[in-house]
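Researcher: Excuse me, tokens okay?
***
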Amino acid sequence: MRLNSIIEKFEKGERVFATFASPDPAGAVAVRDAGYDALIFEAEHKPWDVPQLKDAMQYLLDRRQVFEADTLAPRTTPLVRIPPNGGERSQWHAKQALDLGAYGIIWPHVDTVDDARNAVAACRYPGIDQDPGREPFGLRGDSPAWAARYWGMSVGEYYERADVWPLAPQGEILVGLMIESVRAIENLEAILEQVPGIGLILVGEGDLSQELGVPRQFEHPTVQAHRDRVVEICKAKGVPVGHPHVTERNVDEAMDKGYDFLMTAPVVSYPGLVLGRNLADAARIQPAR
């Protein structure tokens, strides 16, 4: 049985509904009770505070939910968007988030094949007997005790499942890349062809719109054309693709275009989570494409 419900839904061809929140207990509790499938703790534009992130991940769990479920999988799967851009080679951020028990890492500003290879490698353990056909080889340092405890298993069991999906079919760790520039879109096809282990592509509309000269105008035709190109490439390569700004106005369009990972606005006002829950409930009625 899957521990990472995001991967489980992708394997079944189902959509995932998610949001951002600051890595603090209040945000974790609000999202936990709102019915989202996934939560990305936002540490790119928020402070990188490991003790705070550790607390937030604990508060995301609910003992009653765990008791009543027939699985160790959390109802809301935690991912972490780390601070460094894809080309900055700061593997230690990914290492620390994974060591806390995160089920995946979102890497901002991945522009090249080398950036993508570093992202996947940073989320894998090394091994002398690694299959040459399953690169990128791992770079993650070894300190699994807390993550194993968070996942609810022994260290040995954690090792068996703490690899990157879909490169390792049994893996429970999701590597997501933010595609946020024209250069990244131009390289996306090569990235997906040359770097196995990428489980999700997210369109970074904010930075992309800045580069295109229409800041925050997400519905501008130029932004839409570049965003559609990302979806086209991901669909051709069989890689799930995410829309970061799903609202009541565009949720139907996002589903029609084939987005697999639908995100509502970052959690700034916690009452606003009701909107996200309603969107998710309404959208789940429609079959995935």
